[in-house]
UniProtKB/TrEMBL annotation:
It comes from the Eukaryota. Signal peptide: none annotated. Residues 592-829 form the ABC transporter domain. It is found in: Membrane. Its main location: membrane. CDD domains: ABC_subfamily_A (cd03263). The chain crosses the membrane at residues 28-48, 324-346, 366-394, 406-427, 433-452, 507-525. Belongs to the ABC transporter superfamily. ABCA family. CPR flippase (TC 3.A.1.211) subfamily. This is ABC transporter A family member 12-like. The gene is LOC104773946.
């Protein structure tokens, strides 16, 4: 059955789609395991959520409200906040200000106080009036001992200045300064030795230690600021910390005006709320000192306590999916990337795409079906995730608008598939690309969680930098999921009216533009590197008619001295003239015409350029099988690669069915079949499924397709016993070889290239395969490469011996034997002492005989046919047997193998100039 016309775009698309669906069905459990990963994660998040909800419920009774409540997102009710005495933030003993080389002040205590733990708490004072400053400094700290009335605790405690080296909390409901094993300091103008007093406030008990308060005058605010800066651990050039508790600039203060600037110590925290909680005590100290200055020492401002406002119990609805969603769901979505990428690179690595292309699959159907196939799989994957997450109650999915989620995932999945196509055009090995893909998956999630999210939440990080980071698609995905989690944690969810306020609008825009650009770049790289097109292929006018090819000179310039060599090979010269005549006449009767086809590989690592094919002229009509023989490295593979579109010719061209391989290769593929040297098969597809796919590419349909597949399987002995319905991965090497031949012949292509088709076959299978090929060549032009001379003689109508990039001879088997084999081969085996007698015997029969082999008594000679009579050879051998022992002897005509060896040796003796 001959296909009426090449397969259309939609026929090719249908063939590829059916193949992909069959392949997917074979890997159904792999897909199930892939889908189970996000579903298992959702169940894990649900389990954690249930445990958290149970804990929240268990502490709803405020009698159970304790230290774990904050961890569980519960703020306990405080109807009557405690009354806590105000405290001054003071430096730790070993950090308090002492004399130092970077200070010019001599009024500070000696650093030996740090050894005894007796360093005072220093407060600096400056202003316009020295006398006023001295007076206020004397009133800041009292000289009275620590005395409190337990029955009237807070009022009497207010007369004491208490301090703590522990930083305040975020509020005053529970001050960390009132903690167990944490001392409280009473700051006095002077302390006696070992001054310590007990203090009890409610259930709190602690010791109060006396510490000296030292007020020092500085001439101006510049000196104060300089001393504070140099004494801090950030600004100290000597690495020594000298901290002051506070500093006051009295500025224009007098008896009628009170104008003060206060420096407060906030070294221990970066939280603004915590910094300010102990400032009121600093204000009270200078205000009380000023009041005493005006009204006398008997006047006091009693700062008894600080108290927060009452508050009700509040619960933060902690949604684990919302908290952990950005990280885990980034991984879930990105897990599709390695799956898609490895699938694309696998087809490239195993050369499955190129073999599909050689059998007629165009780039358009391949891109459309592959892209739509991966997009469908990806969307089903995400729809399953969202549906399952919503069904089990995860607010991350339920609260956010489903239409927004669909648009977001749809855009990103398209971008991800485009990136996978781009990466597949760059990488060649599945193992390499798998490692890279999973590094990107987990690296993106971790960087997003521990770096990018911190930058998003930072108020100081510029917004334009955030946008710049979002140009990386993984961060765009993370930002979108982060916004979903934020809105879900608020209990409202994201709606379309929230898009502009959430940053999602810029995410949609960035991903949409990148999707478009990445897809274009991926297609361009694929066309240039995979399809072998010119980098400027998009500039070619599609309506311009192809120009006729320039004629080539019949002689070649072989060196810079313009030395011309006339190739005195009559058969090769005749073939070249035949090709030139056919080209001039415009004849299309020949299926294959090679016109001065050349391939030169550029020099590398200091080596000169390598000419693999040297101006090849060849014509192969329909119905002929042309055998190409040659040693390894002769250029046969380069020739086949050019004819099948894997390589572009360096110069010259070839016509296949009248179509130029340099310009119309995509059209050439529609009438071509290929049996590559290595079997290119899908391991999980059966032989029948392979043939169905390639048959559809050849535009065979319906019952004709079924019949053609059955006949192909029968012809290569893969039909009986259900062998054709078994996965190709279970086939032996010979069975795979037979399937590759069947694939190359299905649909009766006009041109077939077979590279060593019978390799690995047993004799019976080889003979059966030869019969198949011989029947197929009736309406097909076949070019066959082989190292089997028996196969070449059986199948090939004409043979060409290819050596060092060029044809050395061409003709049928008999012609080559007659032309290059004008001699008999005489072989005789005797003991070593009779070797000279054998040589004399041969010379008597044929004076011009030539010894071509000699080993351990066995000698082989070439005898020119024109001077040898076979009867005389027999008589001479019988006579010799009576004189010495002859173990074996023989006389044979020249074989094709002898011709091959002779031509190859002769050709290699002369290496033409490049």
């Amino acid at each position: 059955m001959v296909n009426p016309s090449p397969a259309s775009f939609w026929t090719q698309a249908n063939a590829l789609l059916r193949k992909n669906l069959t392949y997917q069905r074979k890997h159904i459990w792999t897909n199930v395991r892939l889908i189970l990963v996000p579903l298992f994660l959702c169940l894990l998040l649900l389990a954690i959520q249930k445990v958290l909800d149970s804990l929240l419920k268990s502490i709803s009774d405020m009698s159970d409200c304790g230290s774990n409540a904050g961890l569980l997102g519960v703020n306990c009710a405080i109807p009557n906040p405690p009354l806590l005495p105000p405290m001054l933030q003071i430096p730790q003993d070993e950090l308090r200000s002492v004399k130092a080389d970077f200070f010019s002040y001599r009024d500070l205590p000696d650093k030996s106080c740090r050894v005894t733990g007796s360093c005072p708490v220093t407060i600096l004072v400056t202003g316009d009036k020295l006398s006023l400053g001295k007076a206020l400094s004397a009133n800041i700290f009292t000289a009275t001992s620590f005395v409190v009335n337990s029955s009237n605790l807070l009022p009497t405690l207010a007369n004491n200045v208490l301090g703590s080296t522990v930083s305040a909390g975020k509020d005053n409901y529970e001050d960390p300064g009132f903690g167990y094993d944490i001392p409280i300091y009473s700051i006095q103008s002077s302390c006696s030795a070992n001054s310590t007093w007990p203090l009890s406030i409610g259930q709190f008990h602690a010791d109060v230690k006396c510490v000296q308060g030292l007020c020092l005058w500085r001439n101006n605010s510049i000196e104060v600021n300089d001393e504070i800066y140099k004494g801090s651990w950030r600004g100290n050039p000597a690495g020594m910390t000298n901290e002051v508790a506070a500093a006051y600039d009295l500025m224009s203060t007098d008896r009628k005006n009170f104008n003060v600037t206060i420096w407060y110590n906030s070294t221990y925290t970066d939280d603004l709320r915590v910094k300010l909680l102990r400032v009121p005590r600093s204000i009270n100290l200078i205000s009380n000192a000023y009041l005493k200055f005006l009204k006398g020492l008997g006047t006091n401002i009693l700062f008894e306590f600080v108290k927060e406002v009452p508050k009700q119990e509040t619960k933060n609805n902690q949604d684990i999916a919302s908290m952990l969603g950005p990280l885990f769901f980034t991984w879930v979505v990105l897990l599709l990337f390695p799956v898609i990428l490895t699938s694309l690179v696998y087809e490239k690595q195993e050369r499955l795409r190129i073999i599909m292309k050689m059998h007629g699959l165009g780039d358009g159907p391949y891109w459309m079906i592959s892209y739509a196939y991966f997009l469908t799989i990806s969307m089903l994957y995400l729809i399953t995730l969202v549906s399952f997450g919503s069904a089990i109650g995860l607010r991350f999915f339920r609260l956010n608008g489903y239409s927004i989620q669909f648009v977001f995932y749809f855009i990103y999945l398209n971008l991800q598939i485009s990136i996978a196509f781009l990466f597949s055009s760059i990488f060649e090995k599945v193992k390499t690309v798998t490692v890279v893909a999973y590094i990107l998956v987990y690296g993106t999630g971790l960087l997003g969680s521990f770096l990018f999210q911190k930058l998003i939440e930072s108020e100081s990080f510029p917004e334009e930098y955030i946008v710049g980071l979002e140009l990386y698609p993984g961060f765009s995905l993370y930002r979108g999921l982060y916004e979903f989690s934020q809105f879900a944690s608020r209990g409202t969810g994201m709606k379309w009216q929230d898009i502009s306020d959430s940053g999602m609008s810029e995410i949609f825009y960035i991903m949409s533009v990148e999707w478009f650009l990445v897809l274009i770049v991926a297609f361009y790289i694929d066309q240039v590197f995979s399809s072998g097109k010119s980098p400027f292929f998009f500039l070619v006018n599609p309506f311009k008619k192809p120009s006729s090819l320039p004629r080539r000179p019949t002689v070649q310039r072989l060196d810079s001295k313009k030395v011309f060599i006339d190739m005195e090979k009559h058969d090769v010269t005749q073939e070249r003239e035949k090709v030139q005549k056919l080209r001039n006449e415009g004849s299309t009767g020949h299926a294959i015409l090679c016109d001065d086809l050349k391939k030169v590989y550029p020099g590398r690592d200091g080596n000169p350029p390598k000419m693999a094919v040297r101006g090849l002229y060849l014509s192969v009509p329909l119905g002929e099988c042309f055998g190409m023989l040659g040693p390894n490295g002769a250029g046969k593979t380069s020739f086949i690669s050019m004819m099948t579109g894997l390589l572009r010719p360096s110069s010259g061209t070839a016509l296949v069915q009248g179509l130029d391989i340099c310009k119309d290769m995509n059209k050439v593929y529609t009438s071509m079949g290929v049996c590559p040297q290595h079997d290119l098969l899908w391991e999980t597809l059966t032989g029948r499924e392979h043939l169905l796919f390639y048959g559809r590419l050849k535009n065979i349909k319906g019952s004709s397709l079924t019949h053609a597949v059955d006949e192909s399987l029968k012809s290569v002995s893969l039909f009986d016993g259900g062998v054709g319905d078994k996965p190709a991965g279970n086939y032996s090497g010979g069975m795979k070889r037979r399937l590759s031949v069947a694939i190359s012949l299905i649909g009766n292509p006009k041109v077939v290239y077979m590279d060593e088709p019978s390799t690995g076959l047993d004799p019976a299978s080889r003979k059966n395969l030869w019969d198949v090929i011989k029947r197929a060549k009736q309406n097909t032009a076949i070019i066959l490469t082989t190292h089997s001379m028996e196969e070449a003689e059986f199948l090939c109508d004409r043979l060409g011996i290819f050596v060092d990039g060029g044809l050395q001879c061409i003709g049928n088997s008999k012609e080559l034997k007659s032309r290059y084999g004008g001699s008999y081969v005489f072989t005789m085996t005797t003991s070593s002492e009779h070797e000279e007698e054998v040589e004399r015997l041969v010379k008597s029969v044929s004076p011009n005989a030539k010894k071509i082999y000699h080993l351990a008594g066995t000698q082989k000679f070439e005898l020119p046919k024109q001077e040898v009579r076979i009867a005389e050879v027999f008589r001479s051998v019988e006579k010799a047997k009576s004189n010495f022992t002859v173990f074996a002897w023989g006389l044979a005509d020249t074989t094709l193998e002898d011709v091959f060896i002779k031509v190859a040796r002769t050709a290699q003796a002369f290496i033409p100039l490049s």
